Amino acid sequence: MAISTKQELELIRESVKALCTKFPEAYWRETDEKNAYPEEFIQALTKEGWLSVLIPEEYGGAGLGMVEACAILEEINRSGGNSGAGHAQMYTMGAVLRHGSEEQKRRYLPKVASGELRLQAFGITEPTAGSDTTSIETTAELKGDRYIVNGQKIWTSRAEYSDLMLLLARTTPKDQVNKKTDGLSLFLLDMKDQQHNITIRPIDTMINHATTEVFFENVEIPVENLIGVEGKGFRYVLSGMNAERILIASESVGDGYYFVDKSVQYANERVVFNRPIGQNQGVQFPIAQSYMEIEAARLMRDKAAELFDAGENCAAEANMAKYLASEAAWKAANAAMSTYGGYGFATEYNIERKFREARLFIVAPITNNLVVSYVGQHVLGLPRSF
Amino acid sequence: MNIFVLMKRTFDTEEKISISGGKINEDGAEFIINPYDEYAIEEAIQVRDAQGGEVTVITVGSEEAEKQLRTALAMGADKAVLINTEDDLEYSDQFTTAKILAEYLKDKDADLIIGGNVAIDGGSGQVGPRVAELLNIPYVTTITNLEINGSTVTVVRDVEGDSEVIETSLPLLVTAQQGLNEPRYPSLPGIMKAKKKPLDELELDDLDLEEDDVEAKTKTIEIYLPAQKQAGKVLEGELADQVKELVSLLHNEAKVV
């Protein structure tokens, strides 16, 4: 993996910023209004190589690390945009990269890097299992040279805009395994090939996130698309979580800076009672406080990303970064809403859209309560609570 | 085609300029590629892509300009050259810069040299034409279109809003006006490739130049900010009276008529 100099990292940030100026807030407001997928933005990101930052050079990517990937997503969200529409194309391939066979990597990664194939749907969560992943009920049964999948996933984002899905399914029933984390397997599902056996139902949500329910009826997956060893899929999923947490933290950091940038600008410009409202400490303090929290969260995010890139264990830092950044962004979102007053609610000011979007990361991709519980149990050694 | 781009590192246009101790305060300021030079870089890349050849971006300045050179490489230029005058020169002007650039370029067999028509800081627009004069090649300033057919070049030049079409030949120096193209920003593969591209650093010595050879022809006596704009005056009353008052003010107060 290549490591960027400070100057190169700055160039990355500036280039992403320049790309984002072509997709101003009016663009995001419109896609949000129409609940449309920001296809042009994703294509521009793909074409200019930003989504393949983590794919090694030998498979057609940039071969950079988490530090650079974080900078990219942070700048997108800071510009007023929403990385959520494409962030998974960056990291979902991590499971193939870390646990896939050489043949799988050669077959898929170059096409994921070029954008020819989109791998940005991750089917794990189910209506009855939620965060209790080992209780999922979707099954994959080996018949000859293929697995037959039946079941249902929920909150599968971007399924309509993805060619491939990383799918977790039970290959051995829970009552027949020693540990409940065994018997789950990870697959690379070609959704286009199996489209007649898959039903995707979009879920209308308060943000434009293209999330769906996905139903599988006798979906066929060839054996060669099993990732790693059958029954060990849960472990593979866990190993990808850290990357996801650090990247989500970066989007929150970007959101946080967005709210602070906007609040500072508005508080300096808006004059009421013959003075800028920012002169009032009731307006000024929440902005300054959330800025401090974002800066602190960014430090934890940086630490997590650097550990990740060094190949060291970063589970605690990745989780803490996700928690701190999403909470800080949410605080900043509220400060911005208060600063803008009534105008914050007017869609043309964009604050309410970003406010809705920033709220997501308190509960997704994992709820902050589970992060706190992770820290209590695994970092501090407190008793297991569930 | 052997293409050279003359590039300058300048203040970000969005920066507020402040002066301390008779000098422009550079602390904490953001620096960028002179925006007109971005058009030059873009044009050079487009010409190379269409005609083949190589693009070399040159700058005269300090080590800090390396960042802007790397950006040009990430945009797609092939090579970069920094002529570092930090240790040799305390004061320089357009003559200095042009002399150094011409000295570097004189044996490079340049087919096309492109610069910005003006740098947004000093704003003299002199360096390009001076370099062409020193190299004894034709030049066209403030161009908005460039077409190359063999050794025939057709250039559209912006003349205060009108267009002038000029036919000339290579080798040639042109300076870019806004509207020539839309400069690209670096892509991630572009940034990765730039890491491996050569960025050479030269000093006056390497060009066989003495400090005296490039000594500035001008002196800066004083630097000051423009006077703050006074609040305007809004005339009131009947339109006819307003016109009379305006004429009288222009005669007697502003003394411009």
TrEMBL record, chain A:
InterPro entries, per database record: Acyl-CoA_DH_CS, Acyl-CoA_Oxase/DH_mid-dom, Acyl-CoA_Oxase/DH_mid-dom_sf, AcylCo_DH-like_C, AcylCo_DH/oxidase_C, AcylCoA_DH/ox_N, AcylCoA_DH/ox_N_sf, AcylCoA_DH/oxidase_NM_dom_sf
Cofactor: FAD
Keyword hit for Metal-binding: no
Entry superkingdom: Bacteria
Domain Acyl-CoA dehydrogenase/oxidase N-terminal, residue spans: 7-116
Regions that span the bilayer: none
Gene Ontology molecular functions: acyl-CoA dehydrogenase activity; flavin adenine dinucleotide binding
Protein family per UniProt: Belongs to the acyl-CoA dehydrogenase family.
Name of this chain's protein: Acyl-CoA dehydrogenase
From TrEMBL, chain B:
Stored Gene3D superfamilies: HUPs
Gene Ontology CC terms, in alphabetical order: cytosol
SUPFAM superfamilies: Adenine nucleotide alpha hydrolases-like
Residue span, Electron transfer flavoprotein alpha/beta-subunit N-terminal domain: 21-211
Keyword Transport appears in the UniProt entry: yes
Residues in the signal sequence: none
GO molecular function: electron transfer activity
InterPro entries: ET-Flavoprotein_bsu_CS, ETF_a/b_N, ETF_b, ETF_beta_N, Rossmann-like_a/b/a_fold
Cofactor(s) of this protein: AMP
Keywords for this protein: Electron transport, Transport
Any single biological process term in GO: carboxylic acid catabolic process
Keyword 4Fe-4S found: no
SMART domains: ETF
Family annotation (Pfam families): ETF
Oligomeric form and interacting partners: Heterodimer of an alpha and a beta subunit.
Biological role stated in the UniProt entry: The electron transfer flavoprotein serves as a specific electron acceptor for other dehydrogenases. It transfers the electrons to the main respiratory chain via ETF-ubiquinone oxidoreductase (ETF dehydrogenase).
Family to which the UniProt record says this protein belongs: Belongs to the ETF beta-subunit/FixA family.
Name of the protein in its database record: Electron transfer flavoprotein subunit beta
